[in-house]
Amino acid sequence: MSDLTVSLRLPRDLLGALDIPEKQLASQVLELVALELFRQGRISAGKGAEILAISKWDFIQILARHQVPYFTESVAELETEIAAAEALDNSLMQTVRRQAGEE
After folding, report:
1. What whole-number distance in Å separates Cα of residue 12 and Cα of residue 22?
2. For residues 88 and 103, what is the distance between their CA atoms, to the nearest angstrom?
3. Cβ distance 69 to 39 under 8 Å?
């Protein structure tokens, strides 16, 4: 991934609001951009991790720290997905058993 350098003019008191040392400002801004893009559904957690040069697990931890949900599906949607996966598993097991009985 190629980089793009951006120069921003920010009020000095913004640094106080972020409560971070000035040398960490660039990485904090990048983290906030990645979080917002993920929240908007414009990037995946994997892409967010890549942008920040961290593991996907670490990115998920950052999401949690900022109270950004990793799962965006509703409980009903997750239940539907689980039911579909269970039905597929049962179907595959029946096929395997049938084939094992034929041999």
Report:
1. 9
2. 23
3. no
Q: Is 62 exposed, middle or buried (0-12, 13-18, 19+ CB in 10 A)?
A: buried
Q: 10 Å Cβ neighbour count for 4?
A: 5
Distance CA 50, CA 63 (A): 14
The pTM score is 0.68
Measured between alpha carbons, how far apart are the two ends of the chain, in Å? 52
Torsion-angle region of 6 (φ positive above 0: left; ψ -120 to 50: alpha; else: beta)? beta
Q: Which tens digit of pLDDT belongs to each residue from 37-82?
A: 999 999 999 999 999 999 999 999 999 999 999 987 888 998 999 9
Residue carrying structure tokens 């598993």: 89
